[in-house]
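User: Hey, quick favor. My workstation is busy. Could you predict this chain's structure for me?
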Amino acid sequence: MNYHELLKKAGQDLIAAGKEERDARQLLLYLKKWSVADYLKYGVAEVAKEEEICYQELLKKRTQGVPVQEITGSQNFYGYEITVSPDVLTPRPETEQLVELALREMESLQWPKVLDLCTGSGCIAIAIAAENKKAQVTAIDISDQALQLAEKNGEQNLVNDRITWLKSDLFEGLEERGFDIIISNPPYIPTNEIADLEIEVKQYDPQLALDGGVDGLYFYRKIAEAGINFLKPGGKLFLEIGDGQGSDIAGILRSSHWQDVQVLPDYAGRQRMVVAGKPGHEKIERN
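Assistant: No problem, here it is.
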């Protein structure tokens, strides 16, 4: 059996187990330490028996519900490799769109100051610092373990010179103000719904990164209330939200005097982002 044949069979097995066919290729590339180009070049080679056994073990873990990222220990996010662990939320593709919106806003800012709340693996802060070389990012989390991993990710992606990693419960330990942008993917799952989540989420993502309180909106209330004091007048807030939470979060922000509140869809058409602005006419430094 060659690698092409092995991969085809593995994909079929994963589909039969209710998993994504594409996971089979990701696991094979991880096992072989191959790029896609390597697979295309060497895929006709015969598979050694020992390798097939190892690969079947990886597939078994996946069919049992272990996420691919937990098996491989990493996740690509916005083109950057992010190490993951049980201490942090695995980066999701939806969050990349939030980063894209923030980067677009930053294009007209000369030296953007960005605050990333609930940074977790550091994926948002790292993508922003890597994509905008003039950005200075402060990334906050309450978890020591998350911050250690985030700093490691920043180091391996060569952006730690422009990121300050800070332990804080949201804004409590933050002295700096005058940010141009606040961005966050906070916990937003209602507490009593966590037990009903897919096994990939409830067993392998930390509850600290999931639990948004009784109604899932605890952190949005905190950010809406205090965040406006840490932005420059005219600064912007970018939030990832759970599907169906848009109108409630928009109402929370408007009641806290945020302006230009927009609930935006992701590429699948689901309400997954909210953008809002701080009132005021003080001019932000721009090109």
